[in-house]
Specification:
YbaK protein, eight-stranded mixed beta sheet, 8 strands, 25% strand, globular
């Protein structure tokens, strides 16, 4: 786990369970690993997006089984033509590699440039498991603790229905 993320969780007194596992490279592989390892919590996918001009970036967190219509998301966040951001942009803002995108990585966005969007259904459950900066590890935290973490680093969360 990235030290900065772990330290922030500890400063906030957020309790979590930590797991080391095989790399999660897709939703389907993740489901298999999480079931095999007995990792609790909902499974999400994290999409790092940019607008048409590349002037605004978004971290979209949705339940793993939901289909994402980027045109619909663009309308809901009132921005033009969202698409996937490059690996270089991902590293610039969140300092993670593809496959390791996570709301925990927002700690690296010192300028609070990335807008955070969550599927509102996520906060209807108690626990979530997410990567702490690398796709061979997962932590389980309460969804309310994750919200506290995100807000403590100066971010706000936009909730949308997906």
């Amino acid at each position: 786990m990235q030290t900065q993320i772990q330290q922030k969780l500890e400063v906030l007194s957020i309790s979590y369970e930590h797991f080391v596992h095989d790399p999660v490279t897709s939703v389907e592989i993740g489901k298999t690993i999480y079931k095999k390892e007995g990792i609790d919590g909902i499974h999400v996918k994290n999409l790092f997006l940019r607008n048409k001009k590349g002037s605004q970036h978004y971290l979209l967190v949705v339940l793993a089984d939901k289909d994402v219509d980027l045109k619909d998301i663009s309308t809901k966040v009132d921005d033009r033509k969202l698409g996937f951001a490059s690996e270089e942009r991902l590293w610039k803002y969140l300092q993670v590699k593809p496959g390791s995108v996570s709301p925990l990585a927002l700690i690296h966005d010192k300028e609070v440039h990335v807008k955070v969007i969550f599927d509102e259904a996520i906060f209807e459950v108690d626990k979530i498991h997410i990567h702490p900066g690398i796709n061979t590890e997962s932590i389980v935290v309460s969804t309310q603790a994750l919200k506290l973490y995100i807000e403590s680093i100066g971010q706000s969360i936009q909730l949308i229905e997906i």
